[in-house]
Amino acid sequence: MSNRTVSIDMMRRRLELPRAEHWVMRSQAEQRTYRIIVAQPLGEAPPSGYPVIYMLDGNCVLNTMVEALRLQCRRPEKTGVVPAVIVGIGYETESQFSPDRFYDYTPFPNTSILNKSDGSPLPQQGGAEAFLKFVEEEVKPQIESEFNIDRNRQALFGHSLGGLFTLYAMFSRPHAFQYYIAGSPSIHWNKEYLQELEQNFSARVKEEPHRIRLMLGAGELEKMHVAGNCAKACQLSERLALLSDYGVHAEYKEFEGEGHVSVLPVLIARALRFALHPEH
Q1: What string of H, E and C letters represents the secondary structure of the chain?
Q2: Cβ atoms within 10 Å, residue 59
Q3: Disulfide: which of 150, 165, 166, 206 matches 182 by Cβ 3.0-4.6 Å?
Q4: Of 130, 123, 129, whose CA–CA distance to 100 is shortest?
Q5: Among candidates 279, 233, 224, 227, which has minimal Cα distance to 257?
Q6: How far from chain centre, in Å, is Cα 157?
Q7: In terms of C-beta density within 10 A (0-12 exposed, 13-18 middle, 19 or more buried), how is residue 104 classed?
Q8: Which has the closest alpha carbon to 53: 82, 94, 25?
Q9: pTM over 0.85, yes/no
Q10: What CA–CA distance (Å, rounded) separates 242 from 247?
């Protein structure tokens, strides 16, 4: 039997995320530029529309969330995850993180921290109010005009400074979303202001009960960080759990053996079941 050499002509193509698209939006109030990335599931939406998860730092782990969702949502009765639309709000950069996040995700500048860990000056801060307005008044209407969305099943996912913003959004506009996932939230960044918002939020939901579900998550190894955000997040969940009679559900999850960055994949897996369970 003779040996044969088979020549294969291979064309390399850039791998794209299936059933996903992205576009650029410029905020009306501040003329800041964002990359909006949307991934939709297969099949027709249910009569009520698809649940939706809005994901901060959209340049970072959006693909991880989309693939985890698509893997699990095929058998909701087994996995506890139904199909949903994923919306990543990112930036016009090829980097995973943009310095613009310091402005968008922080309610006020932190005057006690002047430099990043590498010694470089911190970017501008304090734009969370304007960014939340952009999400509420521009991004969400755009998404709802193009996709069949269930407005009663909207989630916001943020990590680190994005986790801080998630808490800010829940406290300041509790009706904006029904599910809030704050991973490794940088509570120390605006601790005093967040405490004030929490008090106002508690008083508000006692007067006007509303169904809100919050998951706080962090890696076990983060407990060693001087900021103490694991303890702060746990204590926050305990305080908010006292509002259960007013429709607020709050829980804290600590993931064994994970750090500030490595926690993201397991946090995403838990977040999907938290926000997309068929019985919720």
Answers
A1: CCCCCCCCCCCCCCCCCCCEEEEEEECCCCCCEEEEEEECCCCCCCCCCEEEEEEECCCCCHHHHHHHHHHHCCCHHHHCCCCCEEEEEECCCCCCCCCCHHHHCCCCCCCCCCECCCCCECCCCCCHHHHHHHHHHHHHHHHHHHCCEEEEEEEEEEECHHHHHHHHHHHHCCCCCCEEEEECCCHHHHHHHHHHHHHHHHHHHHHCCCCEEEEEEEEHHHHHCCCCHHHHHHHHHHHHHCCHHHCEEEEEEEECCCCCCCHHHHHHHHHHHHHHCCCC
A2: 19
A3: 166
A4: 123
A5: 224
A6: 2
A7: buried
A8: 82
A9: yes
A10: 10
The full length of the chain comes to: 280
Contacts (Cβ under 8 Å, ≥6 apart) of 79 = 72, 73, 273
Residue 261 corresponds to which tokens in the numbers above?
């960055």
Nearest-angstrom CA–CA distance, 202 and 208: 10
Place of tokens 């905020």: 27
- Please report, in tens digits, the pLDDT of each residue of the chain (280 residues total): 444 444 445 566 665 778 889 999 999 989 999 999 999 988 889 999 999 999 999 988 899 999 999 999 988 988 999 999 999 999 987 777 888 999 999 999 888 887 777 778 888 999 999 999 999 999 999 999 999 999 999 999 999 999 999 999 999 999 999 999 999 999 999 999 999 999 999 999 999 998 999 999 999 999 999 889 999 999 999 999 999 999 999 999 999 999 999 999 999 999 999 999 987 6
